[in-house]
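Researcher: We're reviewing a set of sequences before deciding which ones to prioritize for further study. For each one, I'd like a predicted 3D structure that I can look through quickly. This is Kinesin motor domain-containing protein. If possible, include the structure in token form so it fits the rest of the review sheet.
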Amino acid sequence: MRPQRGQIELKNPKEQDEPTKDFTFDAIYDENSTQSDLYEETFRDLVDSVLNGYNATIFAYGQTGTGKTHTMEGKSEDPEQRGVIYKCIDHIFEHMAASHNQEYLVRASYLEIYQEELRDLLEAESNKRLEIKERPDGGVYVKDLTSKLTRSVAEIQEVMVRGNAHRSVG
Ligand SMILES: Nc1ncnc2c1ncn2[C@@H]1O[C@H](COP(=O)(O)OP(=O)(O)OP(=O)(O)O)[C@@H](O)[C@H]1O
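Model: Here's the predicted structure for Kinesin motor domain-containing protein, in token form for your review sheet.
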């Protein structure tokens, strides 16, 4: 791995003479990278753009055990291990606290796509299957998804704890 150049080289150990296969990405992170490196280099600007009125998505994708939960959540109680979600929340609420001439509304939803079905993790009766719809003016949305008004970091954390309790465990 060459994080400085955003490159990964793959070599077949059984075929030493074969050329390596090189893949280039906008950024890559190896075992020396910290949660902070990832947030500061890759996500901070994205969240800033949301605070300026744009939409953004952070999407973790990968097979089981590859580190999605580690990256997105990490460990909330350890400042060094806090993942992207906690860092986004801190960033958003710090920004709001420092803005005196703007009003913000923060709503949190938590849904799960599991075996091709959508479930609302904030709904006590979370077995109800949700549907994806599209509106000409607002784009794609999930019909009847719970959206909770949150006024502080602590309130969003409560939403996460509640949602996590309803997640499917493989
Ligand atoms: N970058 C990392 N540094 C240290 N430990 C890591 C890292 N990424 C993942 N791990 C550890 O590897 C294990 C599997 O990671 P994790 O649970 O985040 O995978 P996942 O992709 O969310 O899996 P699943 O799809 O099954 O939920 C965990 O014990 C996690 O702490």
